[in-house]
Amino acid sequence: MSSAAQPTEGHHILSVLVENRPGVLSRVASLFARRGYNIFSLAVAPSEDERFSRLTIVVDLESTPLEQITKQLFKLIEVVKISELDPRRSVERELVLATVRAAPEDRSQVVELVTIFEGKILAVGTDALTVSLEGHPDKLDDFEELLRGYGIVELQRTGRVALPKLDREARVRAVRGRAS
Amino acid sequence: MKLTGAQALIKALEMEGVEVMFGLPGGCILPAYDPLLDSSIRHILVRHEQGAGHMAEGYAHVTGRPGVAMVTSGPAATNLVTPLCDAYMDSIPMVAITGQVPTTAIGTDAFQECDTVGITRSVTKHNELVMTPDDLPLAIRQAFHIATTGRPGPVLVDVPKDVLQQTMEWHWPSDVAVADSLPGYRPNVKGHPRMVREAARLILASERPVLYVGGGILKARAADALRELAELTEIHVVTTLMARGAFPDDHPLCLGMPGMHGNATAVTALQKADLLIALGARFDDRVTGKVSSFAPEAKVIHVDIDPAEQGKVRRPDVPIVGDCRLVIEEIVKALRAALDAGDERADTSAWRSRISGWREQFPYAYDQAEPGEALKPQFCLETLRDSAPEGTILVSGVGQHQMWSSQYWRFTEPYAWVNSGGLGTMGFSVPAAIGAKVGRPDRTVWAIDGDGCFQMTAQELVTASTERIPIKVAILNNSYLGMVRQWQEMFYDERYSEVYLSPDLPDYVKWAEAMGCVGLRVEEPEEVQPAIDKANAIDDRPVVIDFRVDAGEKVFPMVPAGHSNDDLVLPPSQLRWQESLR
Asked: For an engineered disulfide with B362, which of A23, B114, B264, B462 has Cβ 3.0 to 4.6 Å away?
């Protein structure tokens, strides 16, 4: 993925709670295809309630206003809740796995880079390393950019997942709740 | 009580109040056809599954109840795709049951297997593959609930053969259980009170208001509420192709159909309005013409039960999500309250007299045939209209004959007009007319068809004859795919490409007779009335009249596709008055 593919101002994050049933992902995907909306990234997994899954969809808004996308999504019977996540008021995370060329003379530099970013080295080969990094998508972009200099053999990102930030009141309430 | 899945399916349909279903059996749905023998449900055996779908639609159009079609897997399910899409586009409540290969065979490319839920996903409001007989009652209840509430639409339930064969303990989910099983489905029916008040304020302030009424009015059964609103405010009403009859054509405030082939007054009133009150209408491209120049000075109040219609094409100033009938009633209340409180109403008299002027100057018009010239299709329609028994239901296919039907008929009550608007499905009329006649056997049902359309689904007349469903079909036979011919004449320099069909091949009279109908042919103007009288007098079998009409006749007025509604092309006899529409 090149840096040109990074989300721009035209991108928005939708957190979509759906019923955990067969075919739901396909419904969402075919809705986007049918209406000509672009998905930038999509991550899906069961939520805290086993009846529901949560989709985090980063949408590209160059062609369609967000309002129309959410309204059309809401027409899917299995879509229970849609929240638009403002990046300033959400926590976002993503995971990247990358196999990077690391000939013996470069290896220490790559290892240093991974250490600085607080990533992990998952596998070591004679002239390559497989590394992982979890963090904010912007941080992953930087990491990817720096790895590119050494030669990326393969790379896979998960697409971002996100939740709304707890505001101060909610954080305090959470703490109090634990104390009592 | 132990039942097989098949017995449970039929029992569930009976519990939902299904009286009639349209279908055709085959391998995977076979088990369901056995308990049907003992059921109270009347099954109408079609000749092609597409016919079953359109019949279900026609039935739903005129009764307001969901139409039901049941067919087998694979090719039967794919044959149902067109009616499903048609019903989806026109918001017709419909429930389709399809057989599927046994659960153990799904995914193996088994005989007559296809991915029915995958294929129909984008043409249904919802669909479901039922994997165990225990789930059948809930799946059927959900299907009827979803098809008939909110914005209505088609729902498909796909049932594998082994699910029909296995046994289950019968149970019937409560309304609460159905609602709980659909946590993401909560249609909003009640309009927002603040928006309702704002709508009333805009209506009172408007000098050039128009009620732009779509098919949603009929779905919401809001014709009476609409009439109260129109008469209270004396605002003129345009009824779109899907809403013909929602407001009576003989009412002084009715302007008729707007859009590409609408009348000049309806088109121009929308263009020049300062307020559009859009009720259950979706700003379809056939109504708006070029969107950027549609009703440029108008504010918009948009009432629709589907939130996604708000702002999809035109951004409303006052969006109101809700059931049209409930919202209109609230708007009427708010208007009465405001008027009682002494609020001023803007003066609309200049606007109303302008509209009257247009109406006088621009009726629908065509040149009568000179002696020796071919029959005019409009003349046939006018004669048919004037001879139609009270309460006649008119059904049409798609093309020129459809536009003439909408233009020249006089619709005086709702649910008496059935056509394919959004999808524009040629071949719709014969099966839809059969469904309509089954739904309203007390009414005369006339299908107006083109020769091109008729050839697509005529075989269902065999169904009509066999089942003694005496519909009447008027083929306006111009030996062409007429609307395409019109476009080639007007926009492709009269280069006619693949549009000629021949008036004699097939021989429509013989074909009708072969299908058990009475077949009549009309070539001369003086034969029109006697043939129609004869057809109206026959009530024991279907009738087909082959009207040989002028192939060169075009539908006017016309807004060329993609053009502004200001570029309306008038019929030749009215061209000299074009300026008064500016």
From this structure: B264
CB atoms within 10 A of CB B365: 15
B92-127 tens-digit pLDDT: 999 999 999 999 999 999 999 999 999 999 999 999
Phi, psi for A81 (deg, rounded to 5): -155, 140
Residue A43 lies in a domain: yes
Task: Enter the ipTM.
Answer: 0.88
| Helix, coil or strand: residue A1 | coil
Instruction: With CA atoms as reference, report the closest residue to B179 among B148, B138, B129, B220.
Output: B138
Residues A58 and A20 placed together within one structural domain of the fold? yes
In b/e form, how buried is each residue of A157-175, taking b as 16+ CB within 10 angstroms?
Answer: bbbbbbeeeeeeeeeeeee
CA torsion sign for A137, A140, A145, A148 is: negative
pLDDT 10s digits, B351-375: 999 999 999 999 999 999 999 899 9
Which CATH number do you get for residue A149? 3.30.70.1150
Lowest mean pLDDT among A10-14, A170-174, B200-204, B239-243: A170-174
Partners of B213 in the β-ladder: B239, B279
Q: Token digits for B324?
A: 């049209």
pLDDT tens, position by position, B42-51: 999 999 999 9
Is there a contact between B310 and A30 if contact means CB atoms under 8 Å apart? no
| The total number of residues written for chain A in this structure | 180
Q: Is A37 helix (H, G, I), strand (E, B) or coil?
A: coil
Measured between CB atoms, which of A27, A51, A72 is closest to B121?
A27
Looking at the complex, report in whole angstroms how far the Cα of residue A179 sits from the nearest Cα belonging to chain B.
Answer: 34
* Chain B residues whose C-beta sits inside 8 Å of any chain A C-beta: 117-118, 121-122, 125-126, 129, 146, 182-185, 306-308, 310-312
Between vectors from CA A24 to CA B147 and to CA B109, what angle results, nearest 5°?
95
Q: In chain A, count of helices (H) and strands (E)?
A: 5, 9
Residue ranges making up the domain that contains A135: 91-162
Domains of chain B listed by start with CATH number: 2-180 (3.40.50.970), 193-361 (3.40.50.1220), 377-548 (3.40.50.970)
Give CA–CA dist A128/B194, Å, rounded. 65
Which of A42, A69, A85 is the last residue before a domain boundary? A85
| Same structural domain, A71 and A96 | no
Predicted TM-score (pTM) of this structure: 0.94
| Contacts of residue B219, Cβ cutoff 8 Å, sequence gap at least 6 | B91, B151, B152, B280, B305, B324
By three-state DSSP, how is residue B317 classified?
Answer: coil
Looking at A58, A85, A112, the residue that finishes a domain is A85
Å from B422 to nearest chain A CA?
16
What would the pLDDT profile of B447-469 be if each residue is shown by its tens digit?
Answer: 999 999 999 999 999 999 999 99
Which letter does DSSP use for residue B276 in this model? E
Answer for the pair B460, B55: CB distance below 8 angstroms, yes or no.
yes
> Average pLDDT of chain B?
97
pLDDT at A9: 64
The answer on pLDDT for A81 being more than 80 is yes
A78 and A122 share one domain: no
From CA B205, how far away is CA B194, in angstroms rounded? 17
Total domains present in chain A: 2
- Please write the tens of the pLDDT for every residue from A111-158: 999 999 999 999 999 999 999 999 999 999 999 999 999 999 999 999
**Is A180 inside any structural domain?**
no
**Pair A101, A138 in one domain:** yes
The pLDDT value recorded for residue B488 is: 97
Q: Are residues A103 and A149 in the same domain?
A: yes
The whole-number pLDDT of residue A7 equals: 55
Q: Are residues A44 and A100 in the same domain?
A: no
Of A19, A68, A71, which has the smallest distance from its Cβ to B184's Cβ?
A: A19
Count of other CB atoms within 10 angstroms of residue A26: 12
